[in-house]
Write a structure and sequence with these properties.
This protein has a 3-stranded mixed beta sheet with strand order 1-2-3, with helices on one face. It has a single domain (about 1-90), classed as K homology (KH) domain (GMP Synthetase, Chain A, domain 3), CATH 3.30.300.20. β1 and β2 form a beta hairpin. By secondary structure, it is an alpha+beta fold. Helix content is about 30%, strand content about 45%.
């Protein structure tokens, strides 16, 4: 998912170098009728980007899941929650 978002951002010429782009991921595992199942994956992206580019980053974020092979493989089986936290650089 992180790679797909980076690719969509790159298409909008928003760089995602390691010191400006990161993801914090956590999940929930629940006992569902005696079987342990991953029921939720939460991803919080943090992106530092050039000033004035937030609208483009938000547009990329709104669209990336539909292009992501990993997300498309689990949607419907595992709840995905994602968030994008932006910090504009001077």
């Amino acid at each position: 998912m992180m790679g797909t978002l980076a690719a969509v951002l790159a298409g909008k010429r928003i760089p995602t170098p390691e010191d400006r782009y990161e993801a914090e991921v956590e999940g929930e595992i629940e006992n569902v009728e005696g079987v342990l199942k991953i029921t939720c994956i939460r991803v919080r992206y943090r992106l530092k980007l050039p000033a004035g580019r937030s609208a483009e980053a938000k547009a990329a974020f709104a669209d990336y899941l539909s292009r992501c092979p990993a997300a498309q493989s689990v949607i419907g089986c595992i709840r995905l929650e994602d968030e994008l936290i932006l910090e504009e650089l001077p």
